[in-house]
Amino acid sequence: MTAEGRRRGRDETEEERADRMWGELIQEVRVAQTGVQILFGFLLTVVFQPKYGKLATVDQAIYIVTVVLGACATGALIGPVSLHRLVAGRRVKPQAVRLASRMTFVGLVLLLATMTSSLLLILRVATHDSYVPYLVAAVVAWYVVCWYGLPLWARRKHTARSGD
């Protein structure tokens, strides 16, 4: 088959594309929702532990920030479900997919921040060592590479350019 004869992309209407993209997005959100909900659930129990009162003021502040970030991440990652429920049948799926995609991205950024502050708190309490910020920075760098760097690299490398 010649280059001119090859099909590019999918032969689908805007609505069919929105349906497909919605299904893909919901599968992605399910994975992230599970992680953030489990993490948030554990975070909520910390304050009720006897050791919480013995934490340094800085560690209590890190905990509060972590819980707020976890709550925000949970809200952003559950948001697409509510959005879908409230706009279903209104013929706005393409717009809903774009909005839900943005909400999911924000939720992932907030999840990254939640995991970062959780790791910082846990390692500060567990070790009291000066290397903790460096270890947390290394883990965050790993998350950034896996969650954003490699996907953006793949998108840039493999996205068809006009005129190719």
List keywords for this structure.
77% helix
Overview of the molecule:
With 164 residues, the chain is an all-alpha fold. The chain contains 4 helices and no strands. It has helices at 14-46, 57-87, 93-127, 132-158. α1 packs antiparallel against α2 and α3 (93-127) packs antiparallel against α4 (132-158).
Number of helices: 4
| Rg | 21 Å
Total beta strands: 0
Order of helices and strands: HHHH
Mean pLDDT: 91
Unreliable spans are none
Tell the overall outline.
flat
Largest sheet: none
How is this fold's topology laid out?
Blueprint: H1 14-46, H2 57-87, H3 93-127, H4 132-158
Task: Compose a concise summary of this entry.
With 164 residues, the chain is mainly α. Helices cover 77% and strands 0% of the residues.
